[in-house]
Specification:
The complex is a heterotetramer, with two copies of chain A (about 350 residues) and two copies of chain B (about 325 residues). By secondary structure, chain A is an alpha/beta fold. Chain A has 13 helices and eight strands. Chain A has two domains: about 325 residues, Thiamin diphosphate (ThDP)-binding fold, Pyr/PP domains (Rossmann fold, 3-Layer(aba) Sandwich), CATH 3.40.50; about 30 residues, no CATH class. In chain A, the strands form two sheets. Chain A has a six-stranded parallel β-sheet. A two-stranded antiparallel sheet of chain A has the order 5-6. The longest helix of chain A is centred in the first third of the chain and has 26 residues. Chain B is α/β, with parallel strands linked by helices and about 325 residues long. Chain B folds into two domains: about 180 residues, Rossmann fold, CATH 3.40.50; about 130 residues, 3-Layer(aba) Sandwich (Rossmann fold). Chain B has twelve helices and 14 strands. Classes of the chains: A alpha/beta (about 350), B alpha/beta (about 325). Bound molecules: thiamine diphosphate (2 copies) and magnesium ion (2 copies).
């Protein structure tokens, strides 16, 4: 079925526009905006990996290589929309306006990391695979029920499509025409399992046929392709046309998490090749060079700006007050039950005795 | 609890319908979801007439996918609605277990109160109605061992409506267990309009100095019958209807056990891991020295709930309870 | 997508062969065999409904209207194949050789009802919807692993396709090329929920595209169409070509179970119409009449034969020894744990005290 | 238990690999399934090298679908295989809960022994390794309250291999819990080749007359540490490693409690519905009059297992256990 789901591109790896109808979309302003957001999140990602190596945060899931998918989608959203990210989509969350400090706190084992800025409808990262897919169907349904034009975007990986929740969520959303965009970053691995062992189908987009909803396959490293198809899908959602499934072909350069070693199950020279051949940032650099507007000073400036921004957030994260044990007890119910009150009292007394 | 209001004579299942109706009428954010709850009014008719009254948008027939619609309801709850989802039988809640365990119950904690899940999950439970296998499970313990969930279980129409309204108004997720064996077995006077029965509070059904008998849901008539039998034999039972299984009404239980010193606990669920063990632990923790005899449990066995041809052997009966009461008396 | 999945028929309602290539398949012998099996299971079904009304068995799930789907599939199986029925497929189980007495015991709340005759690989009826779909994938995989040519057939309804287990089971089977035929009796209702509210897709067959496996849509009331496509799918399975999804369009005339009242949610005059317009038995009668071989005496004879067979089984069921409480305790583990031994001892003592 | 065989010094996780290897070598019907267990050798390397050794047919990387591959494994087990499935972390077992609850555990009963499910489900569990949320659950009670399942949990390499072999040979389904915190924290001498540790039997780790301390899995080092501290203070603890959570080794527990009259129970799981309650019930039933003090439980709270930044507050520590021991001594 691959030929029924061709991979949509706006810009090829050399920075050439290959979809003439979107020529006007690719303006210098947009290229620079997209590029600098990708630099911001790549900077965060690299910093996080190094923080983990230094023991300053816990296990971390890097997304380097997938920046176009995350930036292109996040920039297509309206402020009032919902975002349902996974553990690998904090790049998207950051672009959509999540607090950098809180993103870092999440990776440092703090509940505070799941709290988005006021008014930002960013769900905590889904850890149990695919469980967010029905949530997004329901949250989007609620928007429709209320008569708003808000939509939701829901991220997940190729592996997630094997879970029952993927199926039940898409079925629900399709039956009730929930305004939701299901965005699959097909990085072709679920930890060590390649897509060929994950499914018998050549594409993920074709799974949309089971629900009679639009299924689109795109180059997930082409930030313009991502932006264009996400916008279209959001538009359909807002117009009452229901959900869309987007399969964005991409690649993570690194390991699944900092606790994983990709070289155990794949030849990492392939990742090195991908860096040269399909990198989402390089592509925009090529375009800028082709257009003769590539400005090394500007590139340096945004890199420094990103680094400064992230360093500041790291500082905030590291100077954050230590974990208060009361947090364990105080947020289980709105009003703690006697069981929890008693356990809290006893534990705090015990700590008091300690001190 | 209000007084001097109009009442209606309702069965337990009708009282549930009445509670749902009351809340659907009160807030457009209350929304029902489940399999066959619309035109069909639910397989037990608990939602009869509600779709006609409130529309297909508010009383929603879902696809046959418990994880899917519980998950979707979580999304709705997070986004301002108060979903009440029906699981057709408790034995079919397991496909939704992950959604309940890792999201519904934990979301408040995960986000320090930023996102919350004010959702009610209704589920008929228990044996004794000659239903096919899996339809008769009584696995409340799987949800009392799930921080962030409350679990309630009414035994009569009055409590059913009051607890339903309390559950819908609760800011946190509540599992609402419905004893299907008691759905239509008796009628009570039920106030019209809105009232609540507080979650976390049990109820003393009879006063007695000799033995505390603790039960809930469909086991209440069994406990009452046993108490009656024992009364003939001169043993005064204090029957407690727990009503809420998490959090247990500690004060009610402990006060009674401190008085009687003897306890019999009654439930349909398997002995190991059952709420009976939690009650024994509670007594151990809070009334150890008051005990005149070890607490006795009359429960389902450590076997699956059997096919209905065998269910009379499985289910606690007044006779088995009476025997346990005699045992603690004789200790 | 309906046009991509046309409904395959061998014989139309008037008994005319519409697929010329299968003309030779429709012999007098086969018609009579198929017909008499359908009479047998319809007789069982009606008898069971009446037994339930008289309180002689428990809640019962009737399949009247779906006989062609059950007979056509069961007769396509080889003796060594596996069958995974639901609560509505005891017609198929009966044709495949299940004990009639045990089928009736099942509906009378007896575990003995789940025990197939020695050597017959018939799984107990699936009560939790769709859970049998992964079982069949695994059992079939085991056959393949062992190098046999055995296959499995797995039944389920239209409603079952919404469950995660449907998706996970088909995905597993497709990835590992399990030799299994997934046979969906689309009777267009899941209790009260019509298929239009169950899914957004017009067909179930198209869901096969998600797994890149063959998806076939057939007239489930045409026993020859059922037989032909089941045989083809079994053939593919045995040849290592993996699973097939068959959608058989059918209808249950009655209520979902004897505890259900279909008139609550659908106009039962529609069922009356279907009886006239698409009944699977009538169709074969038409063929026999068209061929001039319809023999009223024979029809009467097989009906009487079926009735006698079923009456005998009812007798066996009703004279079966009463439920022995030991059964509750003795089959939880191969060797009971002390907990169960103690509970059994105490209960039997209690019963002894009773007597 | 054999003697005079060759031994190897192994960590707990290596002993598991060794047990799997032994059984894969013994019977071609033993077959492993799970996510990332092949080339990757499992996220904890518990299956390292096994796919290379036994082939992709025997050590199978499954799609990411717990219900699907547990369900498929049930089908394989029914059809003559002995599947050992890995759930990557216990917190991800919930999507498979229905398959385990309504099929794996019940099939023997449903079919009166005609179909059986000799399957092992392996799952790393517990907190203390700074893993992300949901990765740290310790919800063994959800499986001890499931008739038809056995639940085991080794605390050391020797038991891990012996219990693994026993579990694979068991004719019924076994949940095999692996304390990830103890995977590599110590090494033991482990015999080469085949031996078993009997399911249903715990082990006395220290003799003591004063207090019985009951624990398992990753809580064993905590219990031992506390016992050591208390020894300094003149209190002799009898530490019991339960090893099997269903069925509990009644004789071991009761004999010890009858001797000491004082009990401290230790587990990571939430207090309500935890195995601690079952142990208290067991003592209530079998050693009531021997008790010199109410049993104390040191457990996880009735809160979700928190994010790892808070886990040191959540997890029982030697100090909390020592305090509980002092409390029962002073009662
Ligand atoms: C229900 C569940 N099972 C297993 C895991 C362990 N796990 C974490 S990530 C992952 C792979 C996910 O792959 P994919 O969906 O492709 O997303 P990616 O990590 O590639 O972004 C697995 C198996 C989990 N988190 N949840
Ligand atoms: C997991 C689960 N949820 C709900 C039910 C209750 N239930 C029994 S049959 C049924 C409808 C099934 O519809 P379908 O799959 O179309 O099969 P049919 O009954 O039409 O043959 C439902 C909802 C169940 N048995 N299992
Ligand atoms: Mg992936
Ligand atoms: Mg149907």
């Amino acid at each position: 079925m691959e030929k029924d789901f061709p991979i949509f591109q706006v810009m090829d790896q050399n920075g050439n526009i290959v979809s003439a109808e979107y020529k006007d979309l690719v303006t210098e302003e947009r290229v620079k905006q997209f590029y600098s957001e990708m630099v911001r999140i790549r900077t965060l990602d690299r910093k996080s990996v190094s923080l983990q190596r230094q023991g300053r945060i816990g296990t971390y899931a890097p997304f380097e290589g997938q920046e176009a998918s995350q930036v292109g989608t996040a920039l297509a959203l309206e402020n009032e929309d919902w975002m349902f990210p996974t553990y690998r989509d904090h790049g998207a969350a950051m672009v959509f306006g999540h607090s950098l400090r809180n993103i870092l706190l999440f990776w440092n084992g703090r509940n505070e990391g799941c709290v988005p800025p006021e008014g930002k409808k960013i769900f905590p990262p889904a850890i149990p695979i695919a469980t967010q897919i029905p949530h997004a169907a329901g949250a989007a349904f609620a928007e429709k029920q209320r008569g708003t034009k808000n939509a939701a975007i829901c991220y997940f990986g190729d592996g997630a499509t094997s879970e029952g929740d993927f199926h039940e969520g898409l079925n629900f959303a399709s039956v009730f025409h929930s305004p939701v965009v299901y965005f699959c970053q097909n990085n072709q691995y679920a930890i060590s399992v390649p897509i060929s062992k994950q499914m018998n189908s050549a594409t993920i987009a074709q799974k949309a046929l089971a629900y009679d909803i639009p299924g689109v396959r795109i180059d997930g490293n082409d930030v313009f392709a991502v932006f264009v198809e996400t916008e279209k899908a959001l538009e359909r959602a807002r117009n009452g046309e229901g959900p869309t499934l987007i399969e964005a072909m991409t690649w993570r350069y690194g390991s699944h998490t900092t606790a994983d070693d990709a070289s155990k199950y794949r030849d990492q020279s392939e990742s090195a090749m991908k860096r040269m051949e399909t990198d989402p940032l390089l592509r925009l650099e090529h375009w800028m060079k082709n257009e003769g507007i590539y400005d090394e000073a500007w590139v340096k400036e945004i890199a420094e700006h990103a680094a400064a921004e992230i360093d500041a957030a790291v500082q905030e994260m590291e100077s954050f007050p230590p974990a208060d044990p009361a947090v364990i007890f105080d947020y289980v119910f709105e009003k703690p039950t006697w069981t929890i009150e008693k356990q809290k009292r006893e534990y705090l007394e015990f700590l008091g005795g300690e001190a | 609890m209000k007084t001097a209001v109009q009442t209606k004579t309702l069965t337990l299942v009708q009282a549930i319908t009445d509670g749902l109706d009351t809340m659907l009428g009160e807030s457009k954010h209350v929304i029902l979801l489940g399999e066959d709850i619309g035109k069909n009014g639910g397989v037990f008719r608990a939602t009869d007439g509600l779709q006609e009254k409130y529309g297909e948008d508010r009383v929603i027939d879902t696809p046959l996918s418990e994880a899917g619609f519980v998950g979707a309801a979580i999304g709705m709850a997070v986004n301002g609605f108060r979903p009440v989802v029906e699981i057709q039988f408790l034995g079919f809640i397991y496909p939704a277990y992950e959604q309940i365990m890792t999201h519904a119950s934990r979301l408040r904690m995960r986000t320090m109160g930023h996102f919350t899940v004010p959702m009610v999950i209704r589920a008929p439970y228990g044996a004794g109605v000659r239903a096919p296998e899996i339809h008769c499970d009584s696995t409340e313990s799987l949800f009392t061992h799930m921080p962030g969930m409350k679990v309630v279980c009414p035994s009569n129409a009055y409590d059913a409506k009051g607890l339903m309204i309390a559950a819908i108004e609760d800011p946190d997720p509540v599992l609402f267990l419905e004893p299907m064996r008691s759905y239509r077995s008796s009628r009570d006077e039920v106030p019209e309009g809105k009232y609540t029965v507080e979650i976390g509070k049990g109820k003393k059904l009879t006063e007695g100095d000799d033995v505390t008998v603790i039960a809930w849901g469909a086991m209440i008539p069994v406990a009452m019958k046993a108490a009656e039998v024992m009364k003939q034999k001169g043993v005064d039972c204090e029957v407690l209807d727990l009503r809420t299984l998490y959090p247990i009404d500690k004060d009610l239980v402990i006060e009674s056990v401190q008085k009687t010193g003897r306890t019999v606990i009654l439930h349909e669920a398997h002995a190991t891991g059952g709420t009976g063990s939690d009650l024994i632990s509670l007594i151990n923790d809070e009334a150890f020295l008051y005990q005149k005899a070890p607490a006795e449990r009359v429960t389902g066995y450590d076997t699956p709930v059997p096919y209905f041809g065998f269910e009379d052997h499985y289910l606690p009966t007044p006779k088995r309870v009476a025997a346990a009461i005699e045992k603690v008396m004789k200790f």
